[in-house]
Amino acid sequence: MRSLLGELATGGTNEEVTITDMEASIEHMSRATIRHVEAMLILTEPYYRSLETVGRIAPLVRELGIEHIWAVANKVRSPRDEEILRSYCEDRGIEIGGIVPFDEAIQEADREGRALIDYEPEAEAVGAIERIADLLEREVAVKNNGSSDGGNGEGDQS
Amino acid sequence: MKVAVAGKGGSGKTTISATLSRVLARRGHRVTAIDGDPNPNLGVALGMSQEELGELVWVPKEIAEIKEEGESRSLVLTQPAEEVADEYGLAGPDGVNLMVMTGVDHAGAG
Question: Where along chain B do its domains lie?
Answer without folding.
Answer: 13-106
